[in-house]
Amino acid sequence: MVPVKSLGKRNVLGILVDAVDYEYVVNAVMLAAEEGRSLAVSALAVHGVMTGSDSNRSWVVAMYLSCIGVVAALTAWRATAPPAAAKRRRLADMEA
C-alpha cells in the first residue's frame, strides 16, 4: 500500500477534506492499476463554479446541474457495483 502524503485538512464549504499531493495520487492510481485493485479517488475543484460572466444564464445552470447529476449517478453506480460482476465482464470481454 502506498503511504499517504497528507497536506492536512482543508475546509471546503464547511466540510473538512484531506488534501494530498498530486504526485502521490498519480503513483497510487498507477500502483492500484498494476495490481488490479480498485481505488476510490475523488477530485474536488470548486474554484470557478458559478463565478463566470455567463453563470446567471439558464443554459449554464442547466449544464452545471447536469454534470453534477451525471457524476453523482456514476459514483453511486460504481460504489454499488459488485466487484465480482466487473471481473466477470472483463473475463467475458477477453474471451470474446
Describe what you observe in this structure.
By secondary structure, this protein is of the alpha+beta class. The protein has two domains: 1-46, no CATH class; 48-96. The protein contains three helices and two strands; from the N terminus they run ββααα. Strands 1-2 form a two-stranded antiparallel sheet. Strand 1 and strand 2 (15-20) form a beta hairpin. The model has no long low-confidence stretch (mean pLDDT 76).
- The CA-CA distance between the termini, in Å, is 33 Å
Overall domain count: 2
Name the strands of the widest sheet in spatial order.
1-2
**How many H/I helical runs?**
3
Shape, principal axes of CA atoms = flat
Average of pLDDT: 76
How would you classify the quaternary structure?
single chain
In what range is the share of β-strand residues? Answer: 5-15%
Number of strands: 2
Q: In this structure, how is the largest beta sheet organized?
A: 2 strands, antiparallel
- Low-pLDDT stretches: none
**Topology order in helix (H) and strand (E) letters:** EEHHH
Radius of gyration: 18 Å
Residues in helices, as a percent range: 40-55%
Structural class label: alpha+beta
